[in-house]
Amino acid sequence: WENMDGTTRERLSHIQGIPLLERVVKYWPRVEKFQASEEDLLIATYPKAGTTWTQEVVDSILNEGDVEKCKRAPTQVRMPFLEMTAPDGITKLEVMDPPRVIKTHLPIQLVPRSFWDAGCKVIYMARNPKDTVVSYYHFDRMHLYQPDICLVLCKMGILGWGSWYDHVKGYWKERHNKKILYILYEDMKEDPVREVTRIAQFLKRQLSKSTIEHIVQMTAFSAMRENPMANYSTIPDTIFDRTASEFMRKGEVGDWKNHFSAGEDAAFEEHYRKIMSDCPIPIRFTI
Ligand code: A3P
């Protein structure tokens, strides 16, 4: 499926059996050796689970709702993407002073060891797989470096960053052994005040009710969509083809209903129930 349309789309290569973009594999030794510090915070997600949203919420909490401070630079500069940014990004990350907020899509077993040795906090956000795959599909249409995908590949776990199932289960099973706050996209959509409060408590930030409410407004889909420092409008058109889709696309729970036929849904449900039977993550497909 690589380069079928003759674009710059990259191939997937593997690290410990996990498919990753070739550029990630190329610089893997530097990623693996990355030295985290105790004050660093890792935001981990499977792609399209609401990473950017979580990042904006975290930055708003750390800056106590100061809009101007949160607009100091685009998301990818404020909170670098650990494995993807090589080689320039990892160099920047290496010289950035802790506390750093770092984004990753790596499954838990590939997270550089120094994060666990240092005892870093991790915020993991999961999103139901039907909406995740729809979002991934549309993202793939616009992101000209991503290989082409389809639902079957998702089931088989050969999308970039591997199987959604293994990813969400990996962090879930370790959440009590490590400092992992596990949050769900659907919960944040349903009650953002409650979830932002949980994140602030995890980060040991005392914020007033009005600051929390202000942060919820600042990080709402409609606000982030209009914010050039949070909507990836700084990524050039040669990488993000906005005629195909938008990064800030819909931001809803249940868009999968517009894409899954009844038959596909039934097949997916059967597959999902079977594979998730050993791991009761309370993920909802509608709210
Ligand atoms: P959709 O494609 O369903 O709209 P990631 O940041 O992990 O790449 O995830 C992107 C998805 O999160 C996109 O989903 C995007 O619209 C959604 N998203 C981004 N900001 C959001 C927000 N503030 N509220 C809800 N969803 C948001």
TrEMBL record:
Record-level Gene Ontology MF annotations: sulfotransferase activity
SUPFAM superfamilies in the record: P-loop containing nucleoside triphosphate hydrolases
Source organism of the structure: Cyprinus carpio (Common carp)
Sulfotransferase domain ranges (all copies): 39-279
Stated name of the protein: Sulfotransferase
Enzyme Commission number(s) from the entry: 2.8.2.-
Principal subcellular localisation of the protein: cytoplasm
EC class of the enzyme, as a word: transferase
Keywords, sorted A to Z: Catecholamine metabolism, Cytoplasm, Transferase
A GO cellular component entry from the record: cytoplasm
Entry keyword Transferase: yes
InterPro entries: P-loop_NTPase (IPR027417), Sulfotransferase_dom (IPR000863)
Compartments, record wording: Cytoplasm
Signal sequence interval, chain numbering: none
Record Gene3D superfamilies: P-loop containing nucleotide triphosphate hydrolases
Family: Belongs to the sulfotransferase 1 family.
